Automatic annotation (TrEMBL):
Membrane spanning stretches: 47-67, 87-107, 114-131, 143-161, 173-194, 214-234, 272-290, 310-329, 341-357, 363-383, 429-450
Provenance organism: Dicentrarchus labrax
Taxonomy, superkingdom: Eukaryota
UniProt entry tagged with the keyword rRNA-binding: no
GO molecular function: heme binding; heme transmembrane transporter activity
Family: Belongs to the major facilitator superfamily. Feline leukemia virus subgroup C receptor (TC 2.A.1.28.1) family.
Listed name of the protein: Choline/ethanolamine transporter FLVCR1
Amino acid sequence: MISQDDFSHDWIADLSKGRSNGQSPIRQETNTHLLPMLETKLYKRRWLMLFVFSAYSMSNAFMWLQYSIISNIFMRFYSIDSLAIDWLSMIYFLTYIPLILPVMWLLDNRGMRDVVVVGSAFNCIGAWIKTSTADPKMFAMTFFGQFVCSVATVYILGIPSRLASLWFGQQEVSTACSIGVLGNQMGIAIGFLIPPILVPNVDDMNELAHHIRIMFYISAGVATLIFILVVIVFQEKPEIPPTQAQAQARNLSPDEYSYTASILRLLCNKPFMLLVVSYGLNVGCFYAVSTLLNRMIIEHYPGEEVNAGRIGLTIVIAGMVGSLICGIWLDKTKTYKQTTLAVYLLSLIGMLVYSFTLNLGHLWVVFLTAGVLGFFMTGYLPLGFEFAVELTYPESEGTSSGLLNCSAQIFGIIFTISQGKIIDKWGTLAGNIFLCIFLLIGTVMTGKLLTSPLTRPNSFQNNIDL
């Protein structure tokens, strides 16, 4: 085994030179030297940590949608309008925007464990605040509880790529990132499915309050259990790194890294900024569809609150399958550019088909088209994270994914408000066409990334013939 002290930081420049010449960085003997191999090891604990993080993300995502999927019921219960209900979802987006920079700083300076523990605590506290709000006069308090839960989201969305890079091997890093994202998607799926079952649309307000209270207490109990597991299970990083890229990154002294400089480098990275905007357009559309799904379904299929939730579940379950397949595909092929473009284009096609078949009067058609839409639109989420890491290495994974998510939250607010107003004035079809236009723009922008260089060694290391 070669000591880390023997390793030269010139490897980054050598790799870049070799790649730009279209040659294997090991084969190009005139331009580079043989890279020293550092000790690596995979720990079984990585899977337990990934499971606990996924459960934490799932709990938070469930609470994001527990109002909007039965928006008509909560509008009657709290005597509020549709925009107020929409803000119970959009507060997640709005909170993220000002808090993401300080949380990214915490992630880089305090570490992943501290960020995950604090975020899980916020999630737990917000859930318990909401247990006292099953009363028609307590809308302000339930909004405050939702705000506290939304703070936890800022501590979640940048973790999957960081956790995958720090703990998983090069042949499983994309799959691990996909599983981390799947936790969030599972929470969204449960958020679509469970609230319409736990809170039926009954006329008696006391009975309705009882059902709402049960849902809130279940949420709080699960969040508490997960917080305890996070405190017990989560660790910062393994003693021995899992990959050569991580082993080499550990050689960088703290003095060589500046958080502010890293942000500025990312903002000046044109391929990454293209990805930031295109990612925001795609995920912002997904957020708008998720938030307004109940209104879209009820408009064409009155009284179908439970099926609206099931359609949302179909979107997310199909997306979870898509995410997992995309993660496995990336681990095997490393075709980040081509896969991202293909999935983006198919998301656009899926949205078009969903938009023009929603009003046909057949729920089974909606289930089918929503599943296709979810497979590609939700499947895009881990692709964006991993593609960002490939474009920005050796910058922090938490910083790149944080900027991606910030873009998604901004577009999520814009699209949700705009589509809601378009639906109110011109109907669901016009609102969905509005989203399709922006998906088309995002597809074109993603196509421009095909000529962008990848910088993480693991993205091409499989092609090195030693």
